Amino acid sequence: MTSGRIPLYHVKGTHYECAHSIGVITRDRIRQRIADDMGELSTLFTFIQTECGRQLHQEFIETIRLLFPWYWDEIRGLADGSEVPLEQILVLNFLNETITAQRLFEEKQTLGPTNKKFINETGEKGCTTVLLNRKDTNTFSLLHNEDHASALYLTGYLVEADIRSSEYDDGKRQSPNEKFIAYCYAGATPGTAFGANKHGFAFGLNGLYPKYVAHKRLPRQIINRALLSIENEQDLDNLLRLYPVAFGFCINGSFFRQNNYLLNYEIGPNFNKDNENYISKCFVINDDQKQNRKQDEGYTVLNYLVHYNHYERLNEVIIEQKPLGSTHTRSKRGQELGQISTISDALNLLGDTENEAYAIFHTVEKNRNICTLCTAHFNFQTLHLSIYESNPKTTHEPSIIYNLKDLFI
């Protein structure tokens, strides 16, 4: 089943070649996104011309080129293919870090931000995710609302990429062979929203919003991009433990070809120790798995978990931006809707519009720069990714159905 609004592009080649192809294909989408969101992006484009902004991005570039040079090639490929200035592509890829650094810079200059509307909306453009693992209803799924700026509503897209390895550092290192499907924001590398790879790892991400940015680390976009090459749970744990991140985010996922449980990670920079992250890992297990679970195997939740855009387990060690009204209001509404037992229950929650100001599902509205771009459902029993372009509570059929088995070929 194909979609009218969200296209699926197929690319094959090296990291640079695939990104260059996407840049060419989505050139108009990238330019349209920037034009439609210029009211907010112009502030960031101005900020990166300051010494503070230039230093922030230069430190990110140096860290990426050192640790993941193949993903730096993807950023270059996007810029070259789209013919959009590299400086603007960098803002789109370092977005949350740049927004927060700009806010801190402005506070330092004026002792109080002058553009409160822009700053306060940082935490409003978040996502809602349901992890569902139940034996009583025979359900094993991950469902996810992808929320962001309205400028992405007509410019987002899916990409299926088949990337071959390349040599780096005079043959001392090689980039990974990758095959994946991912929902992408125009102008940004894959990985920031939801996706699945050939190893059977599927995920949906929630933005988290520490008050500060850690310098000389990796922006979250690069860690998120690396998720599309992860092979197993140990590989994922090592990625989060060994590579210092500059900002916060949450991973909801499953290694559905290897394990029959779901995972939720909250991640953020540890400012007290150089090059370390705060990490909280949670297992979403069912009743049968509970019987065999050892007490020392970590934090567990039974049957289901709903995650929004605030820290729930690291909130005592990470200082968050305020007020984050949307995420806390959505969380309260989710509790009012009660227990989630079925896929239908999850779709009803993700489609809820009860609170007009802070709805769980945001409809596209004029003069409001936030909307739900789409809703994704990874069904790990049927091995299908279903995508709803409109409210999943009232839409009976998804617009796109993708067979995850196609990634294993």
TrEMBL record:
Gene3D superfamilies reported in the protein's UniProt record: 1.10.10.2120, Penicillin V Acylase, Chain A (3.60.60.10)
Domain of life, source organism: Eukaryota
Stretches assigned to the Peptidase C45 hydrolase domain: 136-393
Record-linked Pfam families: AAT
The protein, known as: Peptidase C45 hydrolase domain-containing protein
